[in-house]
Amino acid sequence: MAGISHYTLPAPVFDKPVKLLIVVSPYYKEIADFQVAGARAAAEACGAEVDLIEVPGALEIPTAIAMAEKLSNYDGYVALGCVVRGETTHYDTVCNDSSRGLTLLGLQGALIGNGILTVENYEQALVRARPDDQNKGGGAAMAALHLIALARKWTGTPRGVGFRTDEGFRA
């Protein structure tokens, strides 16, 4: 069955370099590898420089991003991982707390694309992760890049300058 189509914003265009940090939990290695490939391709399409770090699980992703936000000079972050429903309520805890952690960081000013998949089974994760299918890793990278362009538009600083063009944001 075909999914509902949705509108995708044009990729932002940057005049100044962009530095992204991908934080991935490779708990499900095949899924994580697909997500990272999609995120790297999206970042490359916008000319962004990418660093990658791995953490043990989805719950550690917000902590790693918080540390990087305080201790480094990244423009934005891409959170990647996968949580598959199991037989216990641990699934709910991991989904809710990793999402809440990323949301709180975003509300504090961190520019994050959330690509942590929360699925019922491995097959759903594969469909969402594959770059030639739903490409949620690429979508998360684009979300971070759009937030960076928006921040540059509003702040007028190297970590934020941009204006709207017919091709999308230029920052």
Characterize the structure shown.
The chain is of the alpha/beta class and 171 residues long. The protein has one domain (18-156): Lumazine/riboflavin synthase (Rossmann fold). Helices cover 43% and strands 20% of the residues. It is built from five helices and six strands. The protein has helices at 29-45, 61-71, 90-107, 122-129, 136-155, and strands at 19-24, 49-54, 76-84, 112-119, 163-165, 168-170. The strands form two sheets. A four-stranded parallel beta sheet has the order 2-1-3-4, with helices on both faces. The chain has a two-stranded antiparallel sheet with strand order 5-6. α3 (90-107) links the parallel β3 (76-84) and β4. α1 (29-45) packs across α5 and α2 runs parallel beside α3. The longest helix has 20 residues, at 136-155. The protein is globular and about 50 Å long. It starts with 18 loop residues before the first strand and ends with a strand. 43% of the residues are buried.
